[in-house]
Amino acid sequence: RAADVRAERIPRYVRVNTTCWSTEEAVKTFISRGYQLSGPFEEKYAAACASRLNISGFAKDEHICDLLLFPPDTQLSDDSLYREGKIILQDKASCFPSYILAPPTQDRAVVIDATAAPGNKTSHLCALMNNQGKASPIRFCLFAFERDRKRFGTLKTMLSRARCQNIEAVNADFMTTSPNDGRFASVTHILLDPSCSGSGIVNRLDYLLESGLHSYPQWSCTPPCTLTNLIEAENPEENEERLQKLASFQLLMIRHAMKFPSVQRVVYSTCSVHAAENEHVVREALRTQECKAGKFRLAPRSMVLPTWQRRGLPEEMDTPDDAESLVRCLPGEDATNGFFVSLFVRESPVPEGDH
Ligand code: SAM
Q1: Which residues form the SAM-dependent MTase RsmB/NOP-type domain (predicted)?
Q2: Cα–Cα distance list, 311 to 83, 191, 278, 341, 350 (Å)
């Protein structure tokens, strides 16, 4: 398999699963194993790994609480903490969508993860909701949709390992789920992380490999060895058409989410670096009838991880403020895989009783 040098600079991110224990307990455990807690993650650890020096440092992430950073070559996928669901191996950028959606932690709020498998963002949502709530009666809970049967099986396994108890997993197509179905009348928050080209992924596909959701092709490609490059190596002529198909589907998902009568917040994310799947999809969504009639707008930067410096591409959006509302991550530059996150919010809250 061809290596991508950018992957060597990505720390091993560990999300502490707070449905099982606290971050303080996790930190103490790692210290008792000989790891040293440092300040902000230091470049020297990445450099040390590259040169195979034995430095066992770790740090707390500055943007996502409950996320720890270890040197890039730290192996934890066989660790008992991982097998017991106490830690989740999840790239930092992939923690942004659930964090930005900011699911409620009190009664009378229902959340949908529309495209859930393998379930890292779902279990993150569950942790942010303090693992509270129940689907029956529906007052406060998390619905996790996954249309693919095999992936649905993986989702159930991952959620069970993460000890999530407030989730109703649904093996169904989100697009054919009626927003007028009584079960979803009080849905306020929707996470959309639909299928995409995966062009931002440069490493850390190990959780996909483990869950059987992805297998590395036997053939290699010209570095950077992103999934897209691997796929292009097989089907170069299909790439443009494939991106357009993905973008059309992604837009339909956003439009469908906006039809839910009580929805207040919709996060749309991808692990793609292509504007076609990111800024262009968001721009088109803002121009649709659903957005205008439902009065959805992009949340301002102040609501969307404001301290993260890399924002959307201004030349691809209608206004500079729209671009500022968007979060982008570039592999090789941001110590994460490539990623994109947007947050749509309803202009005015749905009045009580209209649910
Ligand atoms: N959010 C997941 C996570 O962090 O682990 C990754 C989601 S993956 C990018 C997209 C998933 O959405 C795939 O498992 C795919 O089968 C599923 N999917 C795509 N379209 C769907 C639809 N219309 N309804 C439900 N699931 C869908």
Answers
A1: 2-347
A2: 35, 20, 12, 9, 29
Q: Which residues are annotated as a binding site for S-adenosyl-L-methionine?
A: 146, 173, 193
Q: In the chain, how long is the greatest CA-to-CA distance?
A: 62
Tokens of 68: 């720890």
Contact 338, 329 (CB under 8 A): yes
CATH domain 5-90 topology: Alpha-Beta Plaits (3.30.70)
Give residue ranges with CB within 6 A of ligand 1. Answer: 94, 115-121, 145-148, 151, 173-175, 193-195
Read off the pLDDT of residues 313-342 as tens digits, 9 standing for 90 and up. 999 999 999 999 999 999 878 989 999 999
Q: What is the dihedral of CA 273, 276, 278, 282, to 10 degrees?
A: 170
Q: Token pair for residue 30?
A: 């790692």
3-state secondary structure of 43: helix
Report which DSSP code applies to 112. E
Residues 173-215 pLDDT 10s: 999 999 999 889 889 999 999 999 988 988 654 444 444 444 3
Residue type at 4 in one-letter notation: D
Give CATH for domain 95-197+226-346.
Answer: 3.40.50.150
| Cα gap 61→78, rounded to integer Å | 23
What's 149's DSSP letter?
A: H
DSSP run (H or E) holding 83 = helix 80-83
